[in-house]
Amino acid sequence: VQLQASGGGLVQAGGSLRLSCVVSRNIFSLNTREWYRQAPGKQRELVAAIIPGGNRNYADSVKGRFTISRDIAKNTVNLQMDNLKPEDTGTYYCHVRSWGNEDSWGQGTLVTVSS
């Protein structure tokens, strides 16, 4: 599965960005669709996920500010990020897992939030 992430950039604190991940396979064929991020000097962490059944899970640090969604027609997994904070700075990666447990990662898109 090929993933192409986009939408990162530089934004002031309190601003918004929308990340998009184009998936080369029908997203219905996927078990899990997720967004991770990695801040400089830190481990990669899970930010948001759409799990089997369609439920959404979020890291506590982004609850109420980030929204993960899927666009079936465009085969994308999106992350709407509102009220951004400097601590949201990092490289964001989309990740999917197939029902055969095949993991695929996007190339990452950089988000920088200035104070």
Description of the structure:
Strands 2, 4, 5, 6, 9, 10 and 11 form a 7-stranded mixed beta sheet that branches. Strands 1-3-8-7 form a 4-stranded antiparallel beta sheet, with no helix packed on it. The chain has no helices and 11 strands. The mean pLDDT is 95. A hairpin with a 6-residue loop joins β4 and β5. The protein is globular and about 40 Å long. The chain is mainly β and 115 residues long.
Summarize the SSE layout with pairings.
Layout: E1 3-6, E2 9-12, E3 17-23, E4 30-38, E5 45-50, E6 56-58, E7 66-71, E8 76-81, E9 90-98, E10 103-105, E11 109-114
Parallel strand pairs: 2-11
Antiparallel strand pairs: 1-3, 3-8, 4-5, 4-9, 5-6, 7-8, 9-10, 9-11
- Biggest sheet features: 7 strands, mixed
**How many DSSP helices?**
0
Share of helix among residues?
Answer: under 10%
Mean pLDDT: 95
Number of strands: 11
- Strand proportion: over 45%
Span of the ends, CA to CA: 37 Å
- Morphology: globular
Question: What's the Cα radius of gyration?
Answer: 13 Å
- In the predicted model, the low-confidence regions spanning at least 5 consecutive residues are none
* SSE topology string: EEEEEEEEEEE
Structural class assignment = mainly beta
Which tags fit this structure?
seven-stranded mixed beta sheet, mainly beta, globular, 0% helix, 11 strands, four-stranded antiparallel beta sheet, 115 residues
What is this entry, summarized?
The chain has 115 residues and is an all-beta fold. The chain has no helices and eleven strands. The strands form two sheets. Strands 2, 4, 5, 6, 9, 10 and 11 form a seven-stranded mixed sheet that branches.
